[in-house]
Amino acid sequence: MYVKAGAIKADTGFGSGRESTTVRRSPLALSCRPCSRLFRLDALPLPHSSRKIANLVLMPGSKPQRWIAHLDMDAFYASVELLRYPELRGRPVVVGGRRAHQPVVNEDGSRTYAVLRDYVGRGVITTSTYEARAVGVKSAMGLMKAAALAPDAVLLPADFDQYRHFSRLFKSAVAHIAPNMEDRGIDEIYIDLTDVLGMPGMPDGDNATLAAHEGAARYEVGASNDDAALSRVRAVAQSIKDAVREATGLSCSMGITPNKLLSKLCSELDKPDGLTILTFADIPTRIWPLPARSINGIGPKAAARLEAIGIRTIGDLAAYDPLRLVDEFGSNYGAWMHNAAHGRDERNVVTHSEPKSISRETTFERDLHPRGDREALGAILTRLCEQLSADLVRKRYYTRTVGVKLRFDDFKIVTRVLTLPAHTRDARDIRLWAGRCLTKVALERRLRLIGVRADNLCREDALPAQSAPDAGDADQMALPLFAAEAAPHDHPAQDS
Length: 496
Description:
CATH class of the largest domain: Alpha Beta
CATH superfamily of the largest domain: Reverse transcriptase/Diguanylate cyclase domain
Radius of gyration: 25 Å
Largest sheet: 6 strands, antiparallel
Strand content: 15-25%
Distance between the termini: 45 Å
Helix content: 25-40%
Strand order of the largest sheet: 3-17-20-18-19-21
Low-confidence stretches: 1-19, 25-62, 199-225, 467-476, 483-496
CATH architecture of the largest domain: 2-Layer Sandwich
CATH topology of the largest domain: Alpha-Beta Plaits
């Protein structure tokens, strides 16, 4: 029996966390589509042997071995802060405080740091150093809960402008060595090293063939991954790691395998400052013992369902009857799980994709009321609009649609969007239309979060002549929370 694997779409909306920026990519860049071809459900696992596997059988036109790297910066935000405060090295440090938690410089030049034991509020951890992680303090954990685990951990506020600066630095360093790079976020990238290495090799797992006769159910996979070839892979990877450290002073971890799915897994195996290189022959010993939830695309709910049917590790998933997986999870997701457990992934490194939207948002330390805290909310919305405008300028886009996102104290989320009469990236325009969006919401409850988003983007080199924006500085503004003034382009807006 053959099943066609489908796609698992991973799409993002507004950013998350204390304060964040989000760039929504096209489905091409975000799709977790490991396999879109027909595969045999009764295929047995790949061979268990060493890297050198004999009896290679190739399909006509089979591709040379791919080498795909996943590079992940180590505890990125916290590591950037340690560059600024080197005296904190070796101590548990948590990033996620508010501006009031900035270190205080004493008269003698030393610094006094806030610690978790003194924290009061409902903030969450953005990231933590490995010393803090060793005692159970991890990202997305509430700061009050973290204080019970590590009361003496240093608490620092997040500085996203600084993190974006170091993100650009490390990506530029990598691009000088391996330009085929896919940006996956502020602290991680995929890199196609195949052309850099310039070496042919065994086909990837999905190009390995079944024997010619119909009843065959065994993969025969071959490799020319001799020690010299693997040494070249390691040498190139080490040169990338060295370049990143030289450019930023930071360490990174890399996983290098024949595809993106395996490389994402492997970059986590030897953190921090790790370098893991695996072939398909290593799957049984290095990949199958890992928890099933380690696979990118298997979330907490799916992991719980898997555990309920006795599947705890990736090896368990690989050995499970694929027909039963399809019955349990559907033809698309069940087939994808089977492929993923065997390390099959045909996705290419996508070096360019157009963003669908760009957003900014922030979560408040305390709930704010739209009326009683009108002035504070207005200032926060203005700052987010200015930041969004700067993002559009830096990325060279204009927007035709502005939206707001609100999360109330009952955790209900409301969004409103308005289509503008002309493209803009001016902070004043964005602020004005964001305020108009708010007039379409019943603001009766306290707010936990507010965000602003730009949709319907247009590259500056493709901007229609009739929509040329007015020139003007995106200066500081002090508009009220609700903008009643006429927009710069005073035409009826479309509510969408």
